[in-house]
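EI: anyone free to look at a 209-residue chain?
SC: sure, send it
EI:
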Amino acid sequence: MNNSYLIELLKELQDIMCENRDYLIKLDSIVGDGDLGLTMSDGFTAAYKAVSASGETDAGKLLYNAGKAMSTAVPSTMGTLMASGLMQAGKVLKGKTELEKADIAALFEAYLEGVANRGKAKVGDKTFLDGLAPAVAALKSALQAGDELNVAAAAAREAAEAGFQHTTTMIAVHGRAATRGEASRALQDPGAAVAMLMMKAFEKSFLAK
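SC: here you go
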C-alpha cells in the first residue's frame, strides 16, 4: 500500500465522525459539555482536507500534518488528544512511502501511545483508551496469526465495540464525569465511543476497496 490508503482512511474517519456528530453530542451531553460531536467532525474534516490533495508521499509527514491541522482546527482537550495520536503515528511512520500490514498496526499502536502520553490516562480510567487499547491488541493478534488486514480490521472493530460497552462497568477518573463518582459507573464513555467509530471507519476503509 502507498499513502493513498492513509488519505482514504482519513476520509472514512471524517465521514463517520460527521455521520455520528449528533450521536456523540447526545452521548457527551450526559457526562461532558456536549461539544464532542462538533469537535470530532470538525477535527477529522480538517485533518483530511489538509492532506487530501497535498501530494505528500512520506506517510509520517502526511499523518503529522493531518494532526497539526486538527490541533489548529479544534484546540479543545479531546481535539488535542486526537491530534496528538495522529502526530505520534506520524513520528513512527516517518520516511515510509510504502506500507506493510505491520505498519498499519504500528500506526494505531502509536496513536494509542500519543493519546495516552498527552492525556496522562491509563486503560481502566473510562476514557478513549478503553475503546482503542483492546482494538489495537486485537489487530496485532490477528495480524500475528496471519490474517489479512480486512479480517484484522473487523476483529479490531469488534474489540473496540466491546471495550466501549465495558466502560459501563468503570468509574470515571477524568473530566466532568469523574465528579459523579460511583454514579458515573453506568454511563457509556463518549471517548470510547470515538475509538469505536474510528475502528468502524478502519474496517470500512477495506470494505470500500
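EI: Residues 101-119 form the longest helix (19 residues).
SC: 👍
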